[in-house]
Amino acid sequence: MEAATVPEGFAPARFSTGFLDVAGPYYTRKDADHIEVGIRIGEGHINGIDVAHGGVLTTLADVALSYQLFVSEKPHLPIATINLNTNFLSGAQLGEWIVAHAYIDRKGSRTAYCHGNIVAGERLLMTMTGVFALLRK
């Protein structure tokens, strides 16, 4: 992906290798109170009805919520998803830049609760909530 196609302030994500390398590429940016995770919808993300597959948006939701928790402490927290709820509101089109916004609602010693949304510009694509295990040592 050319750097010119990534909005200002976003940098390549430094997630673990594997599935997320295939599902992405992802980009992150720190906003005032949360992390933003962005992705440009490419040919490999499109389904049979010419919008981004629901799995693309669901993966982005899980990535954004868990990454917000991961970076919320130093050293970073290992995270495992317990529950993820998504509401699909609109489809993402080929070539669109979409951004997930993630917020921590409550974080205990072993469990955390988050919410967020995914947008394409001003258009709301998805809302999401999640419960995550904090794998503290």
User: What low-confidence regions span 5 or more consecutive residues with pLDDT below 50?
Assistant: none
Q: Helicity, in percent?
A: 10-25%
Q: What is the highest CATH level, the class?
A: Alpha Beta
Terminus-to-terminus distance: 38 Å
In terms of DSSP E residues, the strand content is 35-45%
Placed side by side, the strands forming the largest sheet appear as 1-2-3-5-6-7-4
Largest sheet, described in full?
Answer: 7 strands, antiparallel
CATH architecture grouping: Roll
- Determine the number of helices (DSSP H or I, runs of at least 4 residues): 2
Order of helices and strands: EHEEHEEEE
Number of strands: 7
Task: Provide the CATH superfamily.
Answer: Hotdog Thioesterase
Overall average residue pLDDT: 92
Class inferred from helices and paired strands: alpha+beta
